[in-house]
Amino acid sequence: MKATLFSSYHTNTNLETSSLHLSSLLDLGKQQIAIIDEVIANDRFGDIDSTISQRLKDLGFLPNTTIRVIAKSLFGKPPYVVQLGTGAQFSLRTDELMKIRCHPLTT
C-alpha cells in the first residue's frame, strides 16, 4: 500500500464507506483509512473527560475528517501513531483511541 499525505484540512463526506461501523480507532488495522464520526465519552478519564474531548477536537479530531493509523507499538498494541487528513500526526494511548469513533473507507 502506498503512503500518501492528505491535502491540507481535508474532510471527506463523499467517499465510499463500508457497512462495518467501528467502535473506536483501536479496531483499525495499520495503514487503514477511516472517517471520524465523533469523539465520545470515556469514563476512564473521570472528571476531566470533557476537557480531553475538547482537546482532541481542538487538535483536529473532528467529524468527517479522514484519519489513518500510521504505526502501532510492539505486537500491535497502543500507543498508535495516527495521521489526520491535515497531515498532522499524533501518538495516542488506549484511552484516547477509545474516545474516537470512526468507520473505515473501502478501497
Structural features:
107 residues; five-stranded antiparallel beta sheet; alpha+beta; 26% strand; disordered N terminus
Overview of the molecule:
This protein is α+β, with helices and mostly antiparallel strands and 107 residues long. Helices cover 16% and strands 26% of the residues. The protein has 2 helices and 5 strands. It has a 5-stranded antiparallel beta sheet. Strand 2 and strand 3 form a beta hairpin. The termini are close together.
What layout of secondary structure does this protein have?
Blueprint: E1 33-39, H1 49-59, E2 66-72, E3 80-84, E4 89-92, H2 94-99, E5 100-104
Antiparallel strand pairs: 1-2, 1-5, 2-3, 3-4
Into which percentage range does the β-strand content fall? 25-35%
Structural class: alpha+beta
Number of strands: 5
**Average pLDDT:** 84
Helix amount, in percent? 10-25%
In spatial order, strands of the major sheet run: 4-3-2-1-5
Kindly, what is the distance between the CA atoms of the first and last residues, rounded to a whole number of angstroms? 11 Å
Number of helical elements: 2
Any low-confidence stretches, pLDDT <50, length ≥5?
1-19
Work out the radius of gyration.
Answer: 13 Å
Envelope shape: globular
Largest sheet, in brief, is: 5 strands, antiparallel
- Written as H for each helix and E for each strand, in order along the chain, the element string is EHEEEHE
